[in-house]
Amino acid sequence: MTTKQVIVITDGDEYARNTIDYLAKLIGGTALVQFADNPTTSSASDVIKAIQQANENPVYVLIDDAGVSGIGLGEEVLLALESDPGITIIGAVAVAAHTKNLEWSRVSFSIDQEGNVIGNGVDKEGIAIPEIGRINGDTVYLLDQLDLPVVIAIGDIGKMNGHDDISKGSPITRKAIELILEREGIRGEK
After folding, report:
1. Record's InterPro entries (predicted)?
2. By the 8 A CB rule, do 10 and 95 touch?
3. Which residues contact 2 (CB under 8 A, 6 or more apart)?
């Protein structure tokens, strides 16, 4: 059995869906945007089934718990992916939120709204925050408990005061995905 390589995106709103769908067509991979929602409403078994049927790596999985604390469906999907032997999570794009110190995660690094790779965390607009190596956000705290090879923090996908707009090619989100792929040495493997 071939292992499916998954990139987790911790956002599921319309902007995130459109951006990831657009970038998957440019970069390669399979975007499971049909399961993206804010909050996540799909079951882990449905998402895993779709991952197994995906034609191209990486598979982009969007999870979102819309600011609800505790274990929601988004976190349940993430836990199921982590424990499935046929799936390897090669990285995560952790999206910052306005929540303050309720849910947070350590991150490998961040990309600010100007496209700079930085050691500090970022806020929802992609502006550096004083925290080094961590961000506040929805769903992200669970990333901290998993052994993921790379977690990249960015601001709100497709937004960041227009810096990540799809009309500009969503450069911040694209850079985060490309850095994960570069570290894993894959690009559109079948």
Report:
1. SpoVAE
2. yes
3. none
